Request: fold
Amino acid sequence: MIGNFPGHIVKLHNNHYHINIDPFKFDVPSPDDLVSNGMRSSSVASKGSLTVPSVSNEKKDVAVKIQARSKMSDGSSILVPKVKKDTVKESLSSLSEDKAQTSTSSLTNMSSSVKHGQSTSVNARRAKSIAQYNPESWMLLDHSEERLTQLNLAIVGHVDSGKSTLSGRLLHLLGRVSQKEMHKYEKDAKLQGKGSFAYAWALDESAEERERGITMTVAVAYFDTNKYHVVVLDSPGHKDFVPNMISGATQADAAILVIDASLGSFEAGMDTVGGQTREHAQLVRSFGVDQIIVAVNKMDVVQYSKKRFDFIKQQVGRFLRSIGFRDSFMSWVPLSAIENQNLVAPASDARLMAWYEGSYLLDAIDSLQPPKRDFSKPLLLPICDVVKSNSLGQVFACGKLEAGAIRSGSKVLAMPSGDIGTVRSLERDSKACPIARAGDNVAVSLQGIDANRVVAGGVLCHPDFPVVVAAHLELKVLVLDAITTPILIGFQMELHIHHAKEAARVVRISSLLDSKTGKVTKKAPRCLTARESAVLEVALNGAVCVEEFANSRALGRVFLRSSGRTIAVGIVTRIIDRQES
Reply:
C-alpha cells in the first residue's frame, strides 16, 4: 500500500490471457479517418432499431489497489480494494462479484432475457431522438469550479521499455508515493534481486507481476500538473496481455509511447514479428487517440546520444505518420526514468543538455490539447466493473462517463437488462462527489435495482435515451497483418466493444473499400486478406450494448480477435437487428 498517496491505484480486468500474438502493421487510415473522409453510416435498418474508484467514504485519502478476484465462501469472486480493515468490515463486509466468465455469461443471459421480453420495454422509450434532448443547467460544465481538467493518459509500449518504472518515478517525484513507501519498495526489490524494479512496484503490486517482472493488467494512478488532473493508465507491454491493454487503455484521451533507446531493444519493439511498439501505437490510434508523446527512455544506456535519438525519431515518426498520427500532435522527449532526467524538470546531465532544448515530460503533458467532452448529451457510462454489497443492499457500477452528467438522486437505466435504479451516491478519485460529468471516472452506488441486473460490459444511460442492444451489426473494418488465414463468410472470431466481448461470425462481406478514399472497389468479395478495408456483417452469439459510430464513438468502436490475435479494427456503421426488450 502506498502511504500518503491521495488517490488510488487499481488493477482492471484481472483475467490473464496466455496467448501468442503476432504484431501487425496498420498503414491504412484509422476508423476515425475513414469516417472523417466521408464514409458515413447508412441509416438504421427498417427492422427496428479502470479507473475503478474505491467504495469507501473515508474522508482521509487512502491508496487503493484492486486485487485479483478472490474466492468468497459462496463461490463468487470479488474485486477487493486494499483499504483499512475496519473500513472494509463496516462498509463492504459482504462484497461479491462474479468472475469474468460469469460476467460474460450474465451479459449473454441478460441479453437473452431482453430478447424474450422478460424486462421492461426500453426500445419503446427510444421514440425521443438525441436531438430532442435538453440538458439541465447543472449538467453543463461549471467554469467557476476550481478544478483541473481530467486527462486520461495511456502509457504504452514494448515489454521492458520502462513504462511502469516511468509511471512510478513520476508518482514519487510528484509526491504521490511517499519516501517511506519508496524505501520499502527498494528494499523488497533488492531482496528479490530486482533492484531496478523498485519504482515499477509502485504500480505492479501482485506477487505474480513482481516475480515475472512484467505488468499483466492495466494499473491506474493519479497525479496533477499545472493544467490537468492526469489519470495514468499503465498498460501491460507483453504480447500475452494485449486483451487487458485493450480493456483498460480504450478510455485514453492521449498516450505516451515509451521507447527503449538501448541497442537491440528498440529494434525488437519495432520488429514486424514480435514488436509491441508497433501494435500498441496501432491500437491507441484505433481507440481514437490522436495526440501522442513519444518518450525515448533509457537514454543513459546510450550515453544520451543525439545520433541514437534522431535515428529512433526518424524510424518511429515514419511509422506513426503511416497509421494516421500528425506531426503537429506528436511530441518527442528523450529521458531516463531511472536517472530522473527530463521528467518533471529540465535535464541536468551535460550530455543531454548539450543538444536537447525541448520540453521535459511533464511540460509535454501540459502541452496536450484538452479532450472534448459531451456534456450536453444524454448520460452514457459503459460499465467496466461491478462491486456488490449484500449487507448494504447496494451495487456499485464503475467506469468512465463518456457523455452527459449524473448526480445523487438521478434515475438511471441499466442496460441490457432495462431496469431502472436510483443513484444513491457517487465517488470520484476515492472521494464522495455531488456531481460527475463526461470524462470523469466514477463509482456509482445504485439502489432500487437488483444487483444481478448490473453487469460489467453493460451501460448506464438516461432512462429516456436507452442505448441499443443488438446482435447483428454492419461493420467497417481494417484487416491487420496479424491475420493468418483469409476472412470468409462463416469466419469465427471474438468481438470486443467498450468493456464487452462476444463470440461472433461473419455472415456477409458486402464490399471492399479503397483505404485512402473509402470508395467501394469491389462488391461481395469472396474473402478478406491483410491490409484490406471492407464492409461486412457479423452475427453475435449474444446481444451487446452498442451504438453506431456516428452517434457514439465510445460504443461504436470494435476490435476483432481470433486465435489470440487482433485481426481487425473498425467501427459500427449500421445496427441491423435490434433486440426488442
The two ends are 45 Å apart (CA to CA). The chain has a mean pLDDT of 75.
